[in-house]
Amino acid sequence: MKKKVLKVKKIKGKNLSGPVFVFPGPEGWELWSTADGEAQCMGPAEDPQKLRAPDQAVVCLPSRCFLSVPLWISVEEGIAPRDLAKIALEARNMLGANPEAAVWGMESIRTEPVAVAGQDEPGLRQLEATAILAGPLEENWLLEQAGRHEIAGRVLPAPGGVSSAVLRKELGRWVVDFYSGGKWLHTQPLLARELQAGTATEVGALLAQLEAEGTLPDLSMLALREEGEAGAGVREFLSLLPCPVRTEPRVAPRLPAGPWDLQPPLLTERRLAKTEQAKKTRSIRTGLAVYVVLILAALVYFAVPLIQLQKVERELAGIAPEAGKIREASQSWQEAAVLVNPKMNALELLWEVARPLIEKDPGEIDGVRLTTFDFNTKRLLLQGEGKDLEQTEKYFEWLKKEPMLSEYQWRHPQPTLLPNGNARFQVEGIPAGAEVAKEEEGGSDANVVAP
Fold it and tell me: What's phi and psi for 371, nearest 5 deg?
């Protein structure tokens, strides 16, 4: 794209100050601003994305993005002018199949009386400048950081006079902006690419149409705004126009009094989608944060007992040697207690349980002998034979009544008769305080003969 030199100060994006305009210039998109009363421009560029406009910049929509229609509407009490304008636009089928989705704006230009059939007093009609976004902007023209969208002709000052027009080049195409009373009224792109006789005829027909509609009578001035000196072909074109003409340098855009903000629907959808995505992102992040907190809480819940267990194990490992020494000492004392206590000494117990079998004092229990003596700290087991059941029972009674054996609780099953007539017996003594299994004495049949 050929870069055209503008008679304004060149700037960098970081030096922009004041209201910033993204404007469709003659050869491409430009970035305009004013600082200390001096116009500043950066560009041109193929698309506005390359200009890196700051936040809240004003995007000036070129004529190819919208349809502008000057409308006369009747002034009626109780009906808003916007409703009347919408009815008129729908009657012309300019709002499309879905009028609610059309983005359009309007501005009152002037009011004048008009004769009404059947009434003596004239009525009033109002001229409205109306613009409709005919379709979506090109993808590379959408600036999500933009704060306001204006029509390019509305941000340019009028040449002056009651009715005036400006002929300018916009993105390589000639357009005409019409103004009434200093307010923007209409923008019309021209079919011709060059300023020549055919272009003058096209402009003349457009002026005649606006004058016939009463929207732009008595055009006072048409200004050609272009940089550089007008060539012979341009001067010839200007001489063919049916109105006063003059050439002017380009002017910097400025904010109009009342904003229209024709925000493209696609940009609105993008912002809504971005907002929804931000909400989903926040929800996902919140869910992840809660999940992480729960995981950390679970780790702490399970880690604290493990740490305490390891701490106890370390403490037990530290006292293990001393505990071993204490255990050995306790066993030594238990063994010593057995030797010191006659009632727990194995030799003493053996003598006591065998004494009535070999001595006459106490009275000797005749015909009873011991075959097994088994002793530990939990029980004393005696097995033997008697010549008959009577002597065996006599021995059992003696064990239970002997004072030296009072530390034990005695129990025995029913003796077993042998083929030779002897009675085989078994008796068990449990130290006092130990658990004794519940078993009735004489559990086996006394008359059973051992094989």
Answer: -110, -20
Amino acid at position 117, single letter: A
Q: Model confidence over 163-183: pLDDT tens digits?
A: 899 999 998 899 999 999 889
Given a cut of 70, is residue 117 above it in pLDDT?
Answer: no
| Size of the chain in residues | 451
Residue among 426, 433, 373, 392 at smallest CA distance from 409 = 433
Spatial contact of 26 and 169, defined as CB atoms under 8 Å apart: yes
**How would you class 38 by CB atoms within 10 Å of its CB: exposed for 0-12, middle for 13-18, buried for 19 or more?**
exposed
Q: What is the rounded radius of gyration, in angstroms, for the C-alpha atoms of the chain?
A: 59
Q: Taking phi first (over 0 means left), then psi (-120 to 50 degrees means alpha), and beta for anything else, what does residue 182 get?
A: left
User: What phi, psi does 49 have (nearest 5°)?
Assistant: -60, -35
Largest CA distance in the chain: 168
DSSP for 140-173, written as a single string: GG--TT--EEEEGGGGSPP-SSSEEEEEEEETTE
How far is residue 410's CA from residue 99's CA, in Å, rounded to a whole number? 111
User: Rounded to 5 degrees, what angle do the CA atoms 290, 292, 297 make?
Assistant: 95
Helix (H) / strand (E) element for 125: namely strand 123-133
Q: Which uninterrupted H or E stretch holds 208?
A: helix 197-212
Q: Is the pTM of this model over 0.90?
A: no
Average pLDDT over residues 251-260: 86
Tell me how crowded residue 235 is: count the other CB atoms within 10 A of its CB. 14
Q: What is the pLDDT of residue 275?
A: 80
Provide the pLDDT for residue 435.
59
Which residue in the block uniquely carries the two structure tokens 């003659």? 26
